[in-house]
Amino acid sequence: MPENITACIAGGVLCGIGAGITLLSKGSGGGEEILGLLLMQKYKSMSVGKIFNIINVFVFTTCMYIYDISAGVYSIFLQ
């Protein structure tokens, strides 16, 4: 169990750093980032982070419903 949590935290940190570098250099990894950037241009009050969170709530809730709660919780840690 502690190995799973450690792996989730390390993966989340590395993914966050990579996504941050990509967005700061005006690039995109695709998917949520493109949608977030497009919606941010249309709705000035929204940020890419807020849009990510809205999309991720839907994805994680669906994951918990289809698989099980532990898969959803580990996905939230990884995010």
Task: Reconstruct the topology from this structure.
Layout: H1 2-24, H2 32-42, H3 48-66, H4 69-78
Structure description:
By secondary structure, the chain is mainly alpha-helical. It is built from four helices and no strands. Helix 1 packs across helix 4, helix 2 (32-42) crosses helix 3 (48-66) and helix 3 (48-66) packs antiparallel against helix 4 (69-78). The two termini are 18 Å apart. The mean pLDDT is 78.
Q: Count of DSSP helices?
A: 4
Whole-Å distance between the termini? 18 Å
Mean of residue pLDDT? 78
What percentage of residues falls in helices of 4 or more residues?
over 70%
- According to DSSP, the number of beta strands is 0
Descriptive key words:
4 helices; 80% helix; 79 residues; flat; mainly alpha
Quick recap of the structure?
The protein contains four helices and no strands. It is mainly α. α1 (2-24) packs across α4 (69-78) and α2 packs across α3 (48-66).
